[in-house]
Structures are given as C-alpha cells and as structure tokens.
Amino acid sequence: MARFRETVRTLLRERLLDAAFARVADQGFGRLRMAHLAGDVGVSRQTLYAEFASKEALGEALFRRELERCLVGIQQGLDAHPDDLRAGVRAAVAFTLTLAGRNPLIRSVLTSTGDDGLLPYLTTRSAAAFELATAMTGAYVAETWPSIDPVARELAVDAAVRLTASHVVQATAPPEESARRIADTVVRIALSTGREPLPPTRT
Fold first, then answer.
1. CA atoms of 82 and 65, how far apart (whole Å)
2. What does the pLDDT look like over 125-135, one tens digit per residue?
3. How many whole angstroms separate alpha carbon 42 and alpha carbon 17?
4. Percent of the chain with pLDDT over 90
5. CA 126 to CA 56: how far, in whole Å?
6. CA dist., res. 61 & res. 65, Å (int)
7. 126, 94, 89, 122: which is closest to 106 by C-alpha?
8. What is d(CA 127, CA 73) in angstroms, rounded to the nearest whole number?
9. Which among 66, 89, 153, 184 is least surrounded, fewest beta carbons within 10 Å?
C-alpha cells in the first residue's frame, strides 16, 4: 500500500510539473498562478501546496527536471565518442545548446524579468546546477581519460560547464559553431600539461 501511494504521488508530481511547464512556456513564469495550475490538473490548492510549498519551490523543481534531462543528453553525447575527447565535448555541448534553443521553458527563462522570473535559476541560484553538471562531467572524464592531468582536467571541466552556460544565456553563434569553439578551448586546457590523453583501455 505504501508503494502504491508513493507511485500515485510521483505521477501526480509529474502531472503538476507537466502542466506548469506548459503554462510557463506559453505565458512565462511571472504570470503563473498556483490556483490556475491546480485547476489544470484537477486537484485542490491544498494538494498542490503539499507537493510544492511555494511558487519558488515549483520553479526550482521545473528547473531541476530540465537540468536532469539535459545531463542525460550530455552523457549520451560523451558516450558516443569515447575515443575522441574533442568530439565528445563538441557533441555534448551542441546537444545542450540545441536543447536550450528549442526548449520553450528555457526560452521563457531567458525572457523573464524581475524577481518572479525563472532567470535567477540560471544566474544567482545556479550554484547547485553548476555543481551537479561539473561533478557528473568530471567523473566521466576521469574514468574515460585517466591520463589527463587531474588539475588540467578540473580546469577543463569547469571551463566546459561555464562556457556552455554562458552560451545558453546569451547565444552568440549557431550551436554547432559554439560547440566547436568550446570543445577546442576545453581540449587546449586539458592538454595544458603537454600530455596527449590516451584513449580508454578496452577490456
């Protein structure tokens, strides 16, 4: 019974997030009203607030869900090029920038203004997102390219995450071109010790 209740709650939470995603994409986060969201899903405001204590908590949950989806895509991009660091970084960055350009929630984030917008989650409140993305990417590179100097690896991963986030917030070129430039920069940093990273050993 406890497992059933947990499953129902998970499904409800996803329905609420899906409905919030649609409203934010259409109207922006500033115009989102919790009462309207409850009506969209057919639950009481009490039920809604039991899942998300505030509009801010809802915004954080929306942001984290999109971040987790993005990280899955980044992992797939890296996995597609395990023998080529430059190609792997380029694929991962291109995926992220393309997703950001097509995702209606991200577009809403970038056009939001004021304290009630979602933009702070990409700026002043983005520490947790940076930490998660950096930790995941750093662990992958450490496992796949163990010959890279640890200091250079840390700097390269940090640069990759920060440069990608910067291009998400303010795109200056098509995704593929930005991805190429970021990948070139990251590889130069990774090779700053003068040692070429060896491909992973196959077993």
1. 26
2. 566 677 888 89
3. 13
4. 39
5. 14
6. 6
7. 122
8. 20
9. 184
pLDDT of residue 133: 82
From the CB of residue 24, how many other CB atoms can be counted at a distance below 10 Å? 24
What is the distance between the alpha carbons of residues 108 and 27, in angstroms, rounded to a whole number? Answer: 8
Q: Does the pTM exceed 0.90?
A: no
Residue 92 exposed, middle or buried by CB count within 10 Å (0-12, 13-18, 19+): buried
Side-chain half-sphere CA neighbours of 136 within 13 A: 19
Output the six-digit token pair for 8: 């129902």
- Is the model's pLDDT at 193 over the cut of 70? no
Residue range 83-136, pLDDT digits in tens: 898 999 999 999 999 988 888 776 666 555 554 566 666 565 566 677 888 898
Looking at this protein, which amino acid is placed at residue 85?
L
Q: Are 164 and 97 in contact (CB under 8 A)?
A: yes
**What does the buried/exposed string (b/e) look like for 99-108 if buried means 16 or more CB atoms within 10 Å of the residue's CB?**
bbeebebbeb
